[in-house]
Specification:
homodimer, 366 residues, alpha/beta, five-stranded parallel β-sheet, elongated, DNA-binding
DNA sequence: GTGAAAGCGCTAACAA
DNA sequence: TTGTTAGCGCTTTCAC
């Protein structure tokens, strides 16, 4: 096809090797030679072949990122972080999207999927089964997971149990005792560990404070905005009418957006919680919408908080325990890259997360 | 390193060529041979080398996707669509993220970036300058852009002017005459064409209805949620106090979320628009928040609509002109794939978009 | 239906 | 500092 290293060699009268070295700017080549080669390469419109280089070196200068689905805030952010670090190192990023539960997860994992196209792998929040692990191991690539801990693999991520504790502590510190939890499995994300860890963290923290965890206050928000709305509706169905009249005027603002009929949703019987802790900001945002639809003022009637540090939450004043997925992505990328370069696989520290108190949490009114 | 085609050959007593053919299931190979080869390959844990195959065939079975930034709703969705189609075809997806204005766009475009690692390219909403175009052309890869039309390249995307017209028609049909527009350049997205086209479409449609386009009602929402909030605040600053008292009770719901101080923002002097048309749902969502913060009921005091079909908008009842970025991604991927396979580059039809009337638009109250 | 041999475009010893 | 010589692991004529 097009121009190869050979052409440059003939044009310059140099050998292929020298051209190759010059192109890579190796110090053993005369500066003048380098310049000349570069110039000729430019004139000829030379485009290097990563396949050839890869074949020769055994290094593809690319790392793969496996995501359960892409359209999730956390994955997108983490992907961005991985990407930034790879770009810095001159590595390409090959995206392997499992496409959710509907996607042919099995086939995707067929070892041929990897085909030695990448030198390492970053797995986003997945828990692999034995077969999958085995197939991946087969490629002998450095691997690291972002998100939940995975057996046998190094991982970067926050301490989910601790994060949940921080949230509960905040709420309890404000005076809340009736705290509901919105979590649930992220079916689409196929992430198993994180939801459980956060929920366990919630339960543990509640127990630590001597507070009861009512089963009717553990709602499923499917880790999505819409799921959060649903969970909120269920949670607030019980005492909706009461709260509305009391504070609607005081809040000073009204929003009719999609409010119709919300109060009619079926919900847990009994009293309404004074605070709702959500395992993700997207769900928390949904719960806030549900609260408004149910005629409840936030945080006067009910406090709501999440986990993540989502941009929308910032704009809207959502209290949260913020983590930094971009940094996690970068850290993961650096780790694989280091391992690709032969470094020892040292254990990784938990990523930081910190409480960000904004406008959706406050002391309970009763 | 590990197992190659050769090992399988020696173990089975066949030749490399036959093994190669068998592995690819070519019809010229005996079925029994195919089975045998496959079995041995499995036992040996054989992993094909895409680099070697690529070198030999000149085909990498991978296509590159160039995005200005990844963390934008549209790009993520489109990326998902491209990915789905590529996976179907057994192609890998190499992600080239320009990383926004801060990212070294120039360096990224260096032709060596592409290195023949991919057989084709899908460009998300970018307008390239001459140099960039030239460098990309150099690789002689089939290319297609998603989003705005780009000179000299095929593109898939909605007819932005028409979409804006549909929106304006809807609003005018409802009785609105005082319509504001929230658009602006998406600096991060580095997309030039689309914002202009939508704005032009808005202006054109307004003129067609004989309606005035006030310059103070053309606000910059930076194509983001936060930008939408800012734009909305500016737009609503003028008549905030008046609207609030009138409808707060009627809306039946109150939200205190981050409401403090919004009314104090500087805004355009004069009267408030009765409707706001936003060039994206994210901005529209922001405008809705700003309206609520300004004490305005939606759609009683002001109608708001966007473009996109964002999931959040659905939950929240946002009226919009929905497009399908996933389908656009698929279409683009199919087009490159076809061209990679030698098909003629036939022109692509505009992608469909349709009005989705929900709860944020209604007749004007004055 | 299978084998032999010649590369694909580059890098990497080893010489010079 | 530069050139020579082998491959890297696969596909692909062209024979058999």
């Amino acid at each position: 096809m097009s121009t190869g290293i050979q052409e440059i060699a003939t044009v310059t009268g140099l050998s292929k090797s020298t051209v190759s070295r010059a192109l890579r700017g190796m110090s053993s080549v005369a500066d003048t030679t380098i310049d000349q080669v570069r110039r000729v390469a430019d004139e000829l419109g030379y485009v290097p072949s990563s396949a050839a280089a890869g074949l020769a070196t055994g290094r593809q200068r690319a790392v793969g990122v496996v995501v359960p689905v892409i359209d999730r805030w956390f994955y997108v952010k983490a992907l961005g972080g991985v990407d930034a670090e790879l770009r810095r190192a001159g590595y390409d990023l090959v995206l392997y999207n499992l496409g959710g539960p509907g996607g042919d997860r099995d086939r995707s994992f067929r070892r041929s999927m990897l085909r030695h196209r990448v030198d390492g792998l970053v797995l986003l929040s997945l828990v692999l089964d034995e077969t999958e692990r085995a197939e991946l191991e087969l490629t002998r690539h450095p691997m690291i997971v972002i998100g939940g801990p995975a057996p046998g693999l190094r991982n970067v991520g926050v301490d989910d149990v601790a994060v949940a504790r921080v949230a509960v502590d905040h709420l309890v510190g404000l005076g809340h005792r009736e705290i509901a939890y919105v979590g649930g499995q992220d079916e689409a994300g196929m992430n198993v560990a994180v939801p459980w860890l956060r929920r366990d963290g919630f339960t543990l923290a509640m127990h630590a404070h001597g507070l009861p965890v009512r089963s009717t206050w553990i709602a499923d928000g499917r880790f999505s905005f819409a799921g959060g709305v649903d969970a909120g509706r269920a949670l607030f169905a019980a005492g909706a009418a009461a709260g509305a009249a009391g504070t609607a005027g005081a809040a000073g603002a009204a929003g009719a957006v999609g409010a119709a009929g919300a109060a009619g949703a079926a919900g847990a019987a009994g009293v309404r919680p004074t605070a709702v802790f959500c395992a993700s900001d997207e769900m928390a945002l949904g719960v806030v919408v549900a609260a408004r639809q149910a005629g409840l003022a936030v945080p006067e009637d009910v406090s709501v908080m999440g986990i993540d540090g989502h941009e929308y939450g910032e704009v809207v004043g959502l209290t949260t325990v913020a983590q930094d997925p971009v940094a996690q992505g970068r850290a993961a990328a650096r780790a694989v890259l280091a391992e690709v370069d032969g470094a020892e696989a040292t254990p990784l520290a938990a990523s930081p997360a910190h409480l960000v108190v904004r406008a959706t949490t406050g002391p309970p009114s009763r």
